[in-house]
């Protein structure tokens, strides 16, 4: 994520990964405040064994696109809700990648972070049967938790 201030949103992605027992790491990597850290992180990600990158940022949110430009790994972008423009700026910054460098863009804020975790798990589950089983069980539990009566 681009800032410690993004953690309140991005912790929901980490929580989902915890629930699905998916090993992961959490890092603050700012595209504009720590460009060298971003370069080192993105260029080294595949060699360190990472399989998917979730990048959350707000405002002029160039972190996911810049990360995607420096790794062939799938990058999932989460637009963090900004104060001034409610995350519409973040969404447009992340989703409007020119053709050639894709970023899989999720919804603004908490729902996007949750779905980034689930989508990362789904990508990993294509080559991990045990994880696929845990993901199916997670989805079943969610279905079972939906009340039929509103009161
Ligand atoms: C972006 O600027 C971050 O991703 C964050 O969403 C936003 C504000 O950062 P802080 O000023 O709170 O550190 O780079």
TrEMBL record:
Keywords: Isomerase, Lyase, Purine biosynthesis. It catalyses: 5-carboxyamino-1-(5-phospho-D-ribosyl)imidazole + H(+) = 5-amino-1-(5-phospho-D-ribosyl)imidazole-4-carboxylate. Pfam families: AIRC. The keyword Isomerase applies. GO terms for molecular function: 5-(carboxyamino)imidazole ribonucleotide mutase activity; lyase activity. One of its GO terms (biological process) is 'de novo' IMP biosynthetic process. InterPro entries: PurE_ClassI, PurE_dom, PurE_prokaryotes. Pathway: Purine metabolism; IMP biosynthesis via de novo pathway; 5-amino-1-(5-phospho-D-ribosyl)imidazole-4-carboxylate from 5-amino-1-(5-phospho-D-ribosyl)imidazole (N5-CAIR route): step 2/2. Substrate binds at residues 3, 6, 33. Residues 1-146 form the PurE domain. Its EC number is 5.4.99.18. Catalyzes the conversion of N5-carboxyaminoimidazole ribonucleotide (N5-CAIR) to 4-carboxy-5-aminoimidazole ribonucleotide (CAIR). Belongs to the AIR carboxylase family. Class I subfamily. NCBIfam families: purE (TIGR01162). This is N5-carboxyaminoimidazole ribonucleotide mutase.
